[in-house]
Amino acid sequence: MTAYLLNLATLATIFGILAASLNVLIGYAGIFSVAHAVFFGVGAYAGAQVALNLVPDVLLASLAGGLLSGLLSLCLALPALRVRGEYFVAASLGLQMLAVTVFSEAHSLTGGHGGLVGIPPASLLGIDVSSPWRFLAVCVGALTLSLVSIAILMRGGFGRGLMAIRDSESAAEALGKNVPALKTIAVAIGCSLAGVAGTLFAFQLAFINVESFTLEQSVLLMAMVIIGGAGTLLGPLVGTLLLLLLPAVLSFIPFIPATEIGTVQQLVYGLAMTLLMIFRPAGLAAPSTGRR
C-alpha cells in the first residue's frame, strides 16, 4: 500500500507540473491548446534518450527535455499568432494527430509502438535518487520551483500583458503590448515545463510509449486546468488531484467491477464537468465572486 501511495503521489506532482504548464497557455494567455501532450511526449522521449545514451542525471535530462520542447513550441506558437478561438483549437488538434504519427513511426528515437524500455534509475548530480521517497522529493522540488516561477512571472509586467491579451487582444495591441512576442514566450514557457514533466514521467515509469501522449491525454490535461480553475495558481493542482485520485477511489469501491471502472470514471467526469459549468464555471479554486 505504501508503494502504491508513493507512486500515486509522484504521478500527482508530475501531472501538477503538467497542468500548471498548460495553465500558462489557457489561464493566462487565453490560448486553448489540445496538443499539450505532444510536448509532454517530446520531453519524455528526449529525457529518456539522455538517460539511455549519456547519463541518467535527472537534471541534465530535464534540461534536455525542457529545451527541446521549448524549441519545438514554435510549431504551436506560429498558428497561435495567426488564428484564435476555435480555429486555433483545430490547428492544435492537427499538431496533436501529426505528433502521434511521428511518435509511432520514428522507431530509432521513440521505439515506435513498443516504446523505450529499460530507462535507468534516476540520479541527481551523482547522487542516487531512484528510491520512491527520494524521487518524490525531486518531483515536489520541481513542482514547487515551477509554481514559484509562474507566480513571479504572472505578477509582473509579463503576466499583466498576457492577461490583457487573454481578455482582449485588440485592446492589448492598442495599449502598445507586443502581442506576438508575449504569445511566443508564453507558449515556450508552458511547453518547456511540459517537457520537464515528461522527463520526470519517463524516469518514474522506466518505460514510455505513444499511448501516454495521445489526444485523450491532452483533453485530460485541459480538464484538470478547467475543473481546478484556469488563471489561478493552485487551480490546476486541485484539478490534478481530483482527476488522478478519482480512479484510485473508484478502484476501492467493492460493488464496481474492475472491468467497469473506466466507464464509471467517464460518467463521473461528465457529471462533474456539467455541475461545475453550472455552479462553478470558473473552477473549484477560483473566487466565487468572479471569474478569476
Overview of the molecule:
- With 292 residues, the chain is mainly α.
- The protein has one domain (2-212).
- The protein has helices at residues 2-28, 36-53, 58-72, 74-82, 86-105, 107-110, 132-154, 157-167, 169-174, 179-205, 215-228, 235-251, 261-279, and strands at residues 116-117, 123-124, 127-128, 207-208.
- The chain is globular, with a radius of gyration of 19 Å.
- 42% of the residues are buried.
- The model has no long low-confidence stretch (mean pLDDT 88).
Short account of what is shown:
The chain has 13 helices and 4 strands. The chain has 292 residues and is an all-alpha fold. It has one domain.
Task: Describe the SSE topology.
Blueprint: H1 2-28, H2 36-53, H3 58-72, H4 74-82, H5 86-105, H6 107-110, E1 116-117, E2 123-124, E3 127-128, H7 132-154, H8 157-167, H9 169-174, H10 179-205, E4 207-208, H11 215-228, H12 235-251, H13 261-279
Antiparallel strand pairs: 1-4, 2-3
Helix pairs in contact: 1-7, 1-10, 1-11, 1-12, 2-3, 2-5, 2-10, 3-10, 4-5, 4-10, 8-10, 11-12, 12-13
Keywords: Cell membrane, Membrane, Transmembrane, Transmembrane helix
GO cellular component, one term: plasma membrane
Pfam family, one: BPD_transp_2
